[in-house]
């Protein structure tokens, strides 16, 4: 018995990749003048949401591998958007926090980022957006996620 070959357009990963490319392009266009990349923006936003954390915790919270978060933090550090230091409990751990300049930069970028996000989801009704976000979080974590906890992994 042969099964009918699946069409590429029906694969969820393919559709997710296309949607991600659109969302990323909209965000990049919206915040491009700031010189901040979408991942740098997410990193700064996560630091504002959660406060100081270890570099490894920060990377996990934005879904970034260790080597990538290290490079991202170094770029943000060079622009004085974050500060780093050693943990007083364990000197091997690097702590990262948002600087005052980082806070001001994030304040400046957030409205544009929100506009880029709004453009991406503008084709959806509010109910469709809620359903999409529920589904994406389930796909990301393999289970339903409490809406209040939707800030990514801890």
| Strand line-up in the sheet with most strands | 1-3-2
- Number of strand segments: 3
Low-confidence region ranges: none
Biggest beta sheet attributes: 3 strands, antiparallel
CATH class of the largest domain: Mainly Alpha
Count of runs of 4 or more consecutive helical residues = 6
Mean pLDDT: 89
CATH architectural label of the largest domain: Orthogonal Bundle
Order of helices and strands: HHEHHEEHH
Number of domains: 2
General description of the model:
There is one protein chain. With 154 residues, the chain is mainly alpha-helical. The protein folds into 2 domains: 9-123, Orthogonal Bundle (Arc Repressor Mutant, subunit A); 125-154, no CATH class. The protein is 59% helix and 8% strand. The protein has 6 helices and 3 strands; from the N terminus they run H-H-E-H-H-E-E-H-H. Strands 1-3-2 form a 3-stranded antiparallel sheet. Strand 2 and strand 3 (94-98) form a beta hairpin. Helix 1 (12-31) packs across helix 5 (100-121) and helix 3 crosses helix 4. The longest helix is centred in the C-terminal third of the chain and has 22 residues, at 100-121. It is globular.
Task: Tag the structure with descriptive keywords.
8% strand, 3 strands, 154 residues, mainly alpha, Arc Repressor Mutant, subunit A
Report a brief summary of the structure:
The protein has helices spanning about 10-30, 40-50, 55-60, 65-80, 100-120, 125-140; strands spanning about 55, 80-85, 95-100. With about 150 residues, the protein is mostly helical. The longest helix is centred in the C-terminal third of the chain and has 22 residues, at about 100-120.
